[in-house]
């Protein structure tokens, strides 16, 4: 039909524009961009996200931004029309996560339990990671693209601090930090920090449905891993 023909044409133009922008960036800077996203969050729109993910995968750009701010939809000061817009963006963002993961595109890390303060967040988190993990992991503070608190209101005394969201400049350093944190406790001023991929609330809930199964497998010494929300078992050197 004319609609699908038009949609195919639009997606092909999006792909051409994305590839042209990447080429232009390389011409101006001499290297690939570290990450890409879309103005007004267009990169998570239906159909566009598939093209966007394929282009990033083809040119080996490993990171994008998933426009999710946990708690923002419950903020009373957000006007109604902006709240509606945010909920639409959030739905598109949630739907885009499996597409991005399928193409090997990654987003941010999340750190819990860091006390609230007024320090520069990017410098503070970079130094914290070096101090907590040691010189063998980070001889110098890792370079971060950004680090910031989530959008909830600042908690009052006695309540948990807001999570930190951070993006590493180098994918390898991100993976090293994540792997190290799974094998060791990350401590800061006597507090144990939790570092994890910044999954959406919906995706984290889906993964949590496997918790009982994972515990039972661990008790029986069965090796496994989660691929998005699929449980993969390793039995007698064969995968099922």
TrEMBL record:
**Presence of keyword DNA damage:** no
**Biological process per Gene Ontology, one example term:** carbohydrate metabolic process
User: Which InterPro entries does this entry report, sorted A to Z?
Assistant: Glyco_hydro/deAcase_b/a-brl, L1_C, YdjC-like
Cleavable signal peptide: 1-16
What SUPFAM superfamilies does this protein's entry cite? Answer: Glycoside hydrolase/deacetylase
Cofactors required: Mg(2+)
According to its UniProt record, which protein family does this protein belong to?
Belongs to the YdjC deacetylase family.
In UniProt terms, what function does this protein have? Probably catalyzes the deacetylation of acetylated carbohydrates an important step in the degradation of oligosaccharides.
Q: Name the chain's protein.
A: Carbohydrate deacetylase
Q: Which organism is it from?
A: Xiphophorus couchianus (Monterrey platyfish)
